[in-house]
Design a protein that fits this description.
121 residues, mainly beta, four-stranded antiparallel beta sheet, 11 strands, seven-stranded mixed beta sheet
């Protein structure tokens, strides 16, 4: 069973920085794309940033130039460095991975439990 576990959320003042981490664990799996989504109260979940195994990235327009996604493929980890945070970045941030599970021969979208990021003005 593959699991994703996030860490690094918290409360920060506007203009500050946070770094989120996500680790994938389990056995007999390989990961394709990994990324981060967020959901603010009363809003739909949206893509924040995503990175393929080969390093191609995709960012939401609202975070370009402020957030940076990175991966450690050997450790099955993905990171999100968030700088110049704004109150509108407040949301639950969830790690996402496109995982090929070799035990059941299926590719699935996996999600972490989410971590709260709160940016105060």
């Amino acid at each position: 069973q593959v699991q994703l576990v996030e860490s690094g959320g918290g409360l920060v003042l506007a203009g500050g920085s946070l770094r989120l981490s996500c680790a994938a664990s389990g056995s007999r799996f390989s990961i394709n794309a990994m990324g981060w989504y967020r959901q603010a109260p009363g809003k739909q979940r949206e893509l924040v940033a995503r990175m393929t195994t080969k390093g191609s990235t995709d960012y939401a327009d609202s975070v370009k130039g402020r957030f940076t996604i990175s991966r450690d493929n050997a450790r099955n980890m993905v990171y999100l460095q968030m700088n110049s945070l704004k109150p509108e970045d407040t949301a639950v941030y969830s790690c996402n991975a496109n995982v090929y599970d070799r035990e059941i021969f299926l590719t699935r979208e996996m999600w972490g439990q989410g971590t709260q990021v709160t940016v105060s003005a």
